[in-house]
Each structure stands twice: as C-alpha cells, then as structure tokens.
Write the structure tokens for this entry.
Amino acid sequence: MSGETLEATFESGSIDDTLALGAGLGRAMSGTLTVGLVGTLGAGKTHFVKGVAVGNAVADGCRVTSPTFTLVHEYTGRLTLVHLDAYRLKSSTELLSLGFDDFEHERSVVIVEWADRMRGVMPEKMMWVELSVTAETSRSFRVTAAGAVAVTCLRAWQAGLR
Ligand SMILES: Nc1ncnc2c1ncn2[C@@H]1O[C@H](COP(=O)(O)OP(=O)(O)OP(=O)(O)O)[C@@H](O)[C@H]1O
Ligand SMILES: [Mg+2]
C-alpha cells in the first residue's frame, strides 16, 4: 500500500453503539469513497450500514436491509449511498457486471459487505472496516484508511465521536 494511511479501532458494546458508530461515519463522509466491510456472518455489517445511512440523512435509513436479492441498494441522502453485498456474488466479474466501476462518482459512497471476497477489484485508495465479534453483544471495528480522501474521512469520523 503506498501513500497516506491511517488506522483506528472503535469498540461497540451494543447494536445501538454500532448504529451510532455507523452514523458517525455517515456524517463524516464527504463523497467519492469506497468502504469495504469485512467480518463473519452476523458480525454486524448490515447494522453498521444502517447507521451510516442514518448519519448520511437518508430518510428511513433505519429500513436499510441486506441487498440479498437485488444485490445493489441505493439510498439517497446528503450523498448517494450505494450498498452492495458480495456474499452472494460468485466472482469479481459479477460485481463488475453490476456496474461496480461506475458506482463511485462525485457525490457517492459505495459500501460493500464481504469486500474481502472482491479484493481484486477494490480500489487501492479506500476505507476498510474489519468487524470482530469480541463477545455476544460486543464488536471491535478496526478501520484502515488508504489515500487522502479516506484518511480525511476517518479523521472527521474520529473527531465527531469525541
Ligand atoms: N454490538 C453489536 N453490533 C451489531 N450487531 C450486534 C451487536 N451485538 C449483537 N448483534 C447482533 O448481531 C447480528 C448482526 O447482524 P447483521 O445482519 O448486521 O450482520 P452482518 O455482518 O451483516 O451479517 P451477514 O454476513 O449475514 O450479512 C444481529 O443479530 C444483531 O442483533
Ligand atoms: Mg449483512
């Protein structure tokens, strides 16, 4: 990985904490960013996205669900939030055929569950959020920002949570 990077870890002790953490990212985003979510089944990726949608001022953000059948969900808020779940995709070719390369535009944030399965087509400059289940209702979020946009966003996210 070349260029600017920044790492941070956040802890969640409840679903509400995860929603608040996501909302913090949703408020901190300023556009043109890809966020890759990594974590086992039921780690909390979709709940986190729900929080991001709420923070991004998506009307009915709390209705965010996993894009299981339609594969891509798009939510209009302050920025356009494009939500993908790579779990059911067989290959990165399938992700590209959904238009993945075109999703990232000026005022959009692309958020991908199971992004580690699609590492080959993920941009070099993006934000990775790795969720670990630390106890039944506790989760640890390890965030790695690569590139100036992602680093600025992570700094704003941290500042907003203080
Ligand atoms: N601190 C927490 N944050 C988020 N979810 C939590 C937390 N504690 C318990 N949970 C539970 O973990 C589950 C998380 O579900 P969610 O659908 O968000 O996970 P996911 O990572 O998107 O799963 P999948 O891989 O199936 O898409 C829910 O059942 C939720 O109630
Ligand atoms: Mg999910």
Notes: The chain has one domain: 5-161. The CA atoms of residues 19 and 25 lie 10 Å apart. The domain at 5-161 is CATH 3.40.50.300 (Rossmann fold). The pocket of magnesium ion (ligand 2) is lined by residues 45-46, 66, 85, 113 (CB under 6 Å).
